[in-house]
Structures are given as structure tokens and as C-alpha cells.
Design a protein that fits this description.
single chain, about 500 residues, alpha/beta, Rossmann fold, six-stranded mixed sheet, 24 strands, binds adenosine-5'-triphosphate, ATP-binding, nucleotide-binding, ABC_transporter-like_ATP-bd
Length: about 500
């Protein structure tokens, strides 16, 4: 659709952009990225025919740009500049209707039914139809931005050039605008080239990205390849961390502030942080810990500073246990967003805990265990689905700075150790009569201070793995012992 070759040019003698070459296919949403002053707007102006270039060529639909008349070009290309404005006092609808100008012919221009239908449709899609009678001068920045987008779409262009279209828009309109553009690319074959400052929006919506650095192409590729940590750090000269989007396969970039609130964290999590009460075990830290957990509240990955293992009756039944647990936490005076919350039916004074350290590392482990509903995971298909609270809850606090890989390995190590304990303690699955590997509702938490020693791995043979192996074995064995003694006494 658009073929740019050896494009070089600028405003004076020195070129602003040089030797650019890229192709944009029909129906693509193509993003241009780059730091301030890298030449993004200059490229867009050259492609739209506003700014002549010194060397190279721009071919649109197989024809050189300079072979098009202004009106011909206006039928194909619509432009939404960075600071779209209008000095006349027009209504919103009149402003949008100006987009139909290129499609009208003859001296006596007529307003057709088709024109009206298109204008109404694009006003709806951009959410400006409700204030179509208002004077454009009275609108907010974001509202105006949407009106000018509607004007560009009313042109029914084949190519849309946008300079930071989400600039003035609030979160929901950023999403809506990009959703509309994506829809037009898919359904109408619209080709969009858009400048983005927000790398995450670009990563989320664009098919291809072009990264400019000081007027030259750094890379042109799929978002996942362009948005690499080292590349973005070197082009934007700032610290950044790449994370996958939680719901869609798109790269997301996180800024890393030079200083953060966790910086002064020298806390070593140990038993003095914990209270064992009749209805709950609470462990509180001053600084939030990075967590990976399967709790009822705060599960998945996050940052938390209150850890609660709550005792519920064996008959606990609730249609929405997450909501019920959140309400419980609020009642107890905690912010649910600070908490990882688990449940158990066992007596909490039977919990076992251990603070273990070697030369560089230390961990604190807490386990509560009930094995009334023990299960052999390899034969769980023989069980009916039934979530009964006879649970082993394992907390592992690590005083160190763990990688994501170490978090995962830590969970694997702890799970392997738990299964070994159940074997050594001769805990059987009552349905299959084979050794149990856990219970049906076990939960686990790994929480790290993310300060002090760097911990890359936590497999069984690593320094952290060895500590986890010993402490989880000790605590799980002891907690099962306590549980059995109590059950044996008939409590
Ligand atoms: N009309 C102009 N006359 C002279 N120089 C200009 C003109 N417009 C832009 N420049 C210069 O060209 C360079 C590139 O500008 P351009 O607007 O293309 O950058 P950009 O990547 O879009 O930046 P930003 O992210 O800040 O919008 C800048 O150094 C700028 O000062």
C-alpha cells in the first residue's frame, strides 16, 4: 500500500531523517515510535505530501506520491495532526461533515443521503454524536480530538495518518479510539500509520512498529521484537522492564523509577513478624513483598505486606468465597489489596514454622496441615470434584532478590518436598489407597523482600532450594504430626 525508499529530508540544509525504507501493507496498523525529536512527525508529513523531501521516493498504491493531485490524494489519505484545531465556530456535525469535501464534485456541491449516513456513523463510532450540535470551540481537548478523528474517518480514506492520536484522551477513550481504528483496519481494509509515545498502546494494537532514533531506522519489526528491553533502554536512555500483557500476547514495558519505596528495605522476615491467633495467623511486614501465590485473595503475582491464613469451620460453605474473604479482611481492618489470604480448617496452634539461614540467605517457612482429604495427584481422576477444607498451606518468605524463574523453582521444590513428606509420613489417598501427594485444596505462597542477595535459581540443588527443602520438610512433617495427634485424641 505504501512503499518508502531511501527517504531523506528535513526543513533546512541538514536532513532530519535519512535513508528511511519501509513498507506498509493494506489493512495494517503501523506504529512509528521514537524519542522526542527523532523525526516521527517529519516522516508523517513527507508521506502525506505536506513536506517535500530531498531524496528517495514514496509510492502509494503503486503510484509515486508526486503524481497525485491534492484532491486525488485527499480521497485516499486522511491526516489527523498532533494539534488538530479549527479557528471557526462550527458545530461538531459541521466539522465532521467537512471530511466529506473530497468526495463532492462539481460547482454546486450537494449533500447526499450517503454523506449524511457516513457522518452519522463515524460520529457514533467516535462517541461524538451526543454533542453533535455543540460548538466545537466549547469542547474539551479530548472531545475535540475525537471530533477531528471523526472528520478524518468521514473522509472514508484508504490510508489514515495519525500523530499521537491518543494524546488528549482519557484511558477509556484511548482504548475506544484504538479499538475503532483496529476495527476499520480489519473490516474496511483501512491502512493506518500512527505515531505513538505510549509504547504499551503501540505494543497492544500495532501489527508492525518502526523505531526511529535520531532520524534513522533502528528497527522495523513485530512489536515483540521492537519492544525489547535493551533496545528501548538504549534508544530512550531510560531503565525499562518488559513484561507480557496478562491477557493478550502483547509486550508491555514498565518504567523503573530511579528510587522506590522499597529501597530502604532491610527487613529480615522471621517469627517476630507473625501472630498465631485462634481464628487466623497473621504475618505483617512494613515493606511490601513480591509474591506468587495461590491464595483466595491476592493470588497470582503481586506485591503484598499482610499474609493471613484464616481458620474456617469444616462446614464452611460459600458461593463466592473470594468476596466473603475480602469482606472478612475489611472487617478485620485490613486493606484487601495489601493481603494474600488463605483458608484452612485446621487448628492454628498446630502450625509449624522455621527460620533457616546459611551464609548469605535466610528464609522463614510456615505450614499448617490437615490431611483428612489427602489425594494422590496422579490418580485424582478417580475422585469426584469436591473442595473440602482439609488443606496444607505453605508460606515461604525469602529474604533476597528473586528472579521470576527462582519463584517458580521455589514452588516446584516446595511441592516436591511436600509430596515426599506425605510419603514418609505414610499419608494415603483414601479413595485409591496409594500414597497421597497433597490435599485437594492446598495453597502456597512464595514472598520475597526483593532486597539484599540476588537469587537467580531455586531448584533443589541451589542454595535457596536447599533451605526450602529442609524447612518445608521440617515444618510439613511437624504440622502433620500435630494434626494427627489432635485427630487421634478426637478433637
Ligand atoms: N518546521 C520546522 N522547522 C525546522 N525544524 C523543525 C521543524 N519541525 C521540526 N523540526 C525539527 O526536526 C526535528 C524532528 O522533529 P519531529 O517533529 O519530526 O520529531 P518527533 O519525533 O515527531 O518529535 P516529538 O516526539 O517531540 O513530537 C526536531 O529537532 C525539530 O526541532
Amino acid at each position: 500500500m505504501i512503499n518508502v525508499q531511501n527517504l531523506t529530508g528535513g526543513y533546512g540544509k541538514l536532513p532530519i531523517v535519512s535513508d528511511l525504507a519501509f513498507k506498509v501493507r493494506k489493512g495494517e496498523l503501523y506504529g512509528i515510535l521514537g524519542p522526542n525529536g527523532s523525526g516521527k512527525t517529519t516522516v508523517l508529513k513527507m508521506i502525506s505530501g505536506i513536506l517535500p523531501f530531498e531524496q528517495g521516493s514514496v509510492t502509494i498504491k503503486g503510484r509515486l506520491l508526486e503524481s497525485y493531485s491534492t484532491k486525488e490524494l485527499a480521497k485516499i489519505i486522511a491526516v489527523l495532526p498532533q494539534h488538530a484545531s479549527q479557528s471557526f465556530s462550527y458545530t461538531v456535525k459541521d466539522t465532521v461533515s467537512l471530511g466529506r469535501y473530497a468526495h463532492q464534485s462539481g460547482w454546486f456541491q450537494t449533500w447526499s443521503e450517503e454523506d449524511e449516513e457516513i457522518v452519522q456513523r463515524v460520529m457514533k463510532q467516535t462517541g461524538v454524536d451526543s454533542f453533535q450540535k455543540k460548538d466545537i470551540q466549547t469542547l474539551s481537548g479530548g472531545e475535540k480530538q475525537r471530533v477531528f478523528l471523526a472528520q478524518a474517518l468521514a473522509q472514508e480514506p484508504e490510508i489514515l495518518l495519525l500523530d499521537e492520536p491518543t494524546n488528549h484522551l482519557d484511558l477509556s477513550y484511548q482504548k475506544e479510539l484504538l479499538d475503532v481504528l483496529k476495527l476499520w483496519t480489519r473490516e474496511n481494509g483501512l491502512t493506518v500509520i500512527s505515531i505513538f509515545h505510549d509504547l504499551n498502546l503501540a505494543g497492544l494494537y500495532c501489527d508492525q512498529l518502526l523505531l526511529l532514533d535520531k532520524g534513522k531506522i533502528n528497527i522495523q519489526h513485530k512489536p515483540n521484537e521492537v519492544l525489547r528491553e535493551e533496545r528501548i533502554q538504549s534508544v530512550y536512555k531510560t531503565k525499562i522492564k518488559k513484561q507480557p500483557h496478562p491477557n493478550v500476547p502483547a509486550p508491555q514495558m514498565m518504567l523503573l523509577p530511579e528510587s522506590n519505596d522499597n529501597e530502604g528495605n532491610t527487613e529480615v522476615v522471621q517469627s517476630s513478624f507473625m501472630k498465631i491467633l485462634e481464628d487466623k495467623i497473621v504475618l505483617e511486614t512494613v515493606y511490601p513483598l513480591k509474591t506468587l501465590s495461590s491464595g483466595v485473595v491476592g493470588s497470582g503475582s503481586g506485591w503484598h505486606k499482610v499474609f493471613i491464613n484464616r481458620r474456617v469451620g469444616l462446614d464452611y460453605e460459600c458461593s463466592n468465597h473470594r468476596e466473603e474473604m475480602q469482606n472478612y479482611l475489611i472487617q478485620e481492618g485490613y486493606e484487601p489489596s495489601d493481603c494474600v489470604g488463605m483458608m484452612t480448617a485446621v487448628h492454628l496452634e498446630d502450625a509449624s514454622f522455621q527460620h533457616l539461614k546459611d551464609d548469605e540467605l535466610s528464609i522463614f517457612v510456615v505450614v499448617t496441615a490437615g490431611v483428612g482429604h489427602a489425594i494422590d495427584a496422579s490418580k485424582s481422576h478417580q475422585h469426584n470434584f469436591d473442595m473440602q477444607p482439609g488443606t496444607i498451606n505453605t508460606w515461604i518468605f525469602v529474604n533476597g532478590n528473586m528472579t521470576e524463574e527462582a519463584f517458580i523453582q521455589c514452588m516446584m521444590t516446595a511441592t516436591e518436598v511436600k509430596s515426599k513428606v506425605l510419603h514418609d509420613q505414610n499419608v494415603k489417598d483414601p479413595v485409591t489407597n496409594s500414597f497421597a501427594t497433597g490435599t485437594a485444596t492446598d495453597s502456597i505462597l512464595v514472598a520475597a523482600t526483593q532486597s539484599g542477595e540476588d537469587i537467580e535459581f531455586a531448584g533443589t540443588i541451589t542454595p535457596l532450594g536447599k533451605l526450602v527443602g529442609q524447612a518445608v520438610y521440617h515444618c510439613t512433617t511437624e504440622a502433620i504430626g500435630h494434626y494427627r495427634r489432635r485427630v487421634g485424641k478426637g478433637h
